[in-house]
């Protein structure tokens, strides 16, 4: 079974409570549960992590090289638009990467329209709320089939 890491960045632990008009009422725990169920039904083993610390996220990205992950789904939160360090870490790993956002970043503030992750990711899913994670699992499964 392919092992997929899902990294969630700063403030995503507040989903369901923070700016529900933008991010929805679904908590990160609910997203994790629904995503894991969907992935399991598609023969994928998904591990979720969340941190408000950039360095911890970078460590997890680097661990992809030695922990036999087949793919990475990443919602880096605000670090998407600011972190060259995460950009560099993602360049170092050689597995499929799908970038996730709950909101449509192109309907938001100007600074959110620039993503350092998009330059490296195999694809980007955004604007579908919590369903963005299910779509990302579909996408990573498709990418893994292509790489077989």
Number of strands: 5
Globular, elongated, flat, extended or rod-shaped: what is the shape? globular
Order of SSEs: EHHEHEHEEH
Structural class: alpha/beta
Concise description?
The protein is α/β, with parallel strands linked by helices and 148 residues long. The chain contains 5 helices and 5 strands.
Textual characterization of the structure:
The protein is α/β, with parallel strands linked by helices and 148 residues long. Helices cover 36% and strands 19% of the residues. The protein has five helices and five strands, in the order E-H-H-E-H-E-H-E-E-H. The protein has helices at residues 20-23, 28-41, 54-63, 84-92, 131-147, and strands spanning 2-8, 44-50, 71-75, 97-101, 123-126. A five-stranded parallel beta sheet has the order 2-1-3-4-5, with helices on both faces. Helix 4 (84-92) links the parallel strand 3 (71-75) and strand 4. The longest helix is centred in the last third of the chain and has 17 residues, at 131-147. The two termini are 13 Å apart. The mean pLDDT is 94.
List the helices and strands and how they pair.
Elements: E1 2-8, H1 20-23, H2 28-41, E2 44-50, H3 54-63, E3 71-75, H4 84-92, E4 97-101, E5 123-126, H5 131-147
Task: Name its key features.
19% strand; 5 helices
